[in-house]
């Protein structure tokens, strides 16, 4: 597997590039919710919708979660876009023995309170219009028994155009305070997503 790196030039460039790119491509970026920093390592989970996900995670790191940014990517994609490896991306290869190695690596990162790790428990890209998410067991391998040691932050990313040529991005946040079993986390995330969808719908009325 490819472990995350933070190149002395590429990593700072990626941070500035993220802010520039979001200003250029989105009419506005709104963060709904808050982050109460507990001083612990942070695991950020969210809906995995496309190419933008890593940029949106970096935006949260810069605006709220002041940690070193790490994020998981499919190995073939990370090999194709090696730039991301130097900005905190590490690899996972589904349906292979390397999956365990990648999950152990993610767990090791979450033993350092200076780190933030972005993961997608559903394990694959899914439509932004999806209304229910099924989590794979991999997330439990990373955080099982770590209640009180890791701060788990749930995010939901939504976009709307309405009457504008550029979309507006809305990032919803909520701290997760339940147990770290996969089933409990999945249930809490789906309830959170339902709440976010209701709020987002009201914005268009």
Number of strands: 7
By CATH, the superfamily comes out as: Glycerol-3-phosphate (1)-acyltransferase
Number of helices: 6
Q: CATH topology, what is it called?
A: Glycerol-3-phosphate (1)-acyltransferase
Would you state the CATH class? Alpha Beta
| Percentage of residues in helical conformation | 25-40%
Rg calc:
16 Å
Shape: globular
The proportion of residues in beta strands is: 15-25%
Total domains: 1
- Sheet/helix structural class: alpha/beta
N-to-C CA distance:
47 Å
Assigned CATH architecture: 3-Layer(aba) Sandwich
Order of helices and strands: HEEHEHEHEHEEH
Mean pLDDT: 94
Please characterize this protein's 3D structure.
This protein is of the alpha/beta class and 205 residues long. It has a single domain, classed as Glycerol-3-phosphate (1)-acyltransferase. The chain contains six helices and seven strands; from the N terminus they run αββαβαβαβαββα. Strands 1-7-6-2-5-3-4 form a seven-stranded mixed beta sheet, with helices on both faces. β3 (68-74), α3 (75-80) and β4 form a beta-alpha-beta unit. α1 packs across α2.
Identify the notable features of this structure and list them briefly.
alpha/beta, 205 residues, 36% helix, Glycerol-3-phosphate (1)-acyltransferase
Can you summarize this structure?
It contains six helices and seven strands; from the N terminus they run αββαβαβαβαββα. It is α/β, with parallel strands linked by helices and 205 residues long.
């Amino acid at each position: 597997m490819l472990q995350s790196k933070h190149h002395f030039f590429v990593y700072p460039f990626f941070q500035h590039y993220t802010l520039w790119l979001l200003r250029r491509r989105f009419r506005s970026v709104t963060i709904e919710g808050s982050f109460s920093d507990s001083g612990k390592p942070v695991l950020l989970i969210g809906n995995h919708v496309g190419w933008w996900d890593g940029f949106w995670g970096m935006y949260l790191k810069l605006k709220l979660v002041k940690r070193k940014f790490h994020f998981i990517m499919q190995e073939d994609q990370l090999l194709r876009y090696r730039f991301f490896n130097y900005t905190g991306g590490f690899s996972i290869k589904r349906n292979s023995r390397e999956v365990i190695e990648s999950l152990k690596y993610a767990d090791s990162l979450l033993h350092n309170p200076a780190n933030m790790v972005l993961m997608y428990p559903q394990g694959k890209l899914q439509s932004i219009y999806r209304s229910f998410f099924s989590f794979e067991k991999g997330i439990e391998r990373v955080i099982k028994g770590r209640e009180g040691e890791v701060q788990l932050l749930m995010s939901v990313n939504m976009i709307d155009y309405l009457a504008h040529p550029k979309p507006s991005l809305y990032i919803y946040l909520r701290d997760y305070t339940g147990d770290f079993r996969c089933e409990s986390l999945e249930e809490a995330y789906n309830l959170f997503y339902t709440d976010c969808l209701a709020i987002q719908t009201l914005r268009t009325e």
